Amino acid sequence: MPARLSVNLNKVALIRNSRGANYPDLLQVARDCERFGAQGITIHPRPDQRHARYDDVAALKEVVTTELNIEGYPSEEFLQIVLASKPDQVTLVPDEPGQLTSDHGWDTVGRAGMLTPIIERLRAAGIRTSIFVDPDAAMLDGARTVGTDRVEFYTGPFAKGYASDRVAAVAPFAEASRYAATLGLGINAGHDLNLNNLAFFARQLPDLQEVSIGHALISDALYYGLANTIQLYLQRLN
Ligand SMILES: CC(=O)[C@@H](O)[C@H](O)COP(=O)(O)O
Ligand SMILES: NCC(=O)COP(=O)(O)O
């Protein structure tokens, strides 16, 4: 089965916030993404709420009919918000509060004491859990130990290496994916995936279940329109 496409709406929220009004309307964009074929909606509210805001979580939960994935650092504030709204999936990301964007996975061994009870709280609320990781066997062992349902591979290094040597760039991810599957971990991926690199990545990871894509997809929509762009990304996954 092809990996599902979850559209990250952070960049839509960024445009909305820039004028202080509700345009573009994030909820309408979410509905339209689904109408155009998206199989999930993702937001990653950060503590400064510069793009997706914490109050977007509950609002999206009311309208998303595919799958809602909320990404973020598990501060108590973040946890209270997702536990109240119960999205389909929560992806824990180890970002510092002021970080520009995500740039590394969890140290699942060193942070096991923190991650294990948080994952247990989310699971008890019926929420599927995923944790952001680099493609590293020890981190995958740690991911299994802390009890997460899935991992999300941080694909920034793949995207960076793709132009010069795509075979070398994907190799650690393909290997980690095979290993994760033996551990019974579900596999998601995201960060800097785009129309050029997505098909190759997905072909090399047959166990891939979901990709979340925002920056490139929303940028491509400026040229192709949202409906066409979503179809182009879906074609890359099929
Ligand atoms: C975890 C991850 O890779 C994405 O959520 C990405 O970081 C999007 O966040 P920004 O839109 O803030 O860059
Ligand atoms: N989890 C990755 C994500 O949601 C989007 O990342 P990007 O496509 O904006 O780099």
From TrEMBL:
Q: What class of enzyme is it?
A: transferase
What the protein does comes down to:
Catalyzes the complicated ring closure reaction between the two acyclic compounds 1-deoxy-D-xylulose-5-phosphate (DXP) and 3-amino-2-oxopropyl phosphate (1-amino-acetone-3-phosphate or AAP) to form pyridoxine 5'-phosphate (PNP) and inorganic phosphate.
Recorded GO MF terms = pyridoxine 5'-phosphate synthase activity
On subunit structure and binding partners, the annotation says: Homooctamer; tetramer of dimers.
Q: Please state the gene responsible for encoding this protein.
A: pdxJ
| EC assignment | 2.6.99.2
Organism of origin is Neolewinella maritima
Pathway participation? Cofactor biosynthesis; pyridoxine 5'-phosphate biosynthesis; pyridoxine 5'-phosphate from D-erythrose 4-phosphate: step 5/5
Write out the catalysed reaction.
3-amino-2-oxopropyl phosphate + 1-deoxy-D-xylulose 5-phosphate = pyridoxine 5'-phosphate + phosphate + 2 H2O + H(+)
Keywords of this entry: Cytoplasm, Pyridoxine biosynthesis, Transferase
UniProt family annotation: Belongs to the PNP synthase family.
Report the Gene3D superfamilies cross-referenced here.
Answer: Aldolase class I
Kindly give the CDD domains that the UniProt entry links to this protein.
Answer: PNPsynthase
User: What residues bind 3-amino-2-oxopropyl phosphate, as annotated?
Assistant: N8, R19, D192, G214, H215
Q: What's the name of the protein? A: Pyridoxine 5'-phosphate synthase
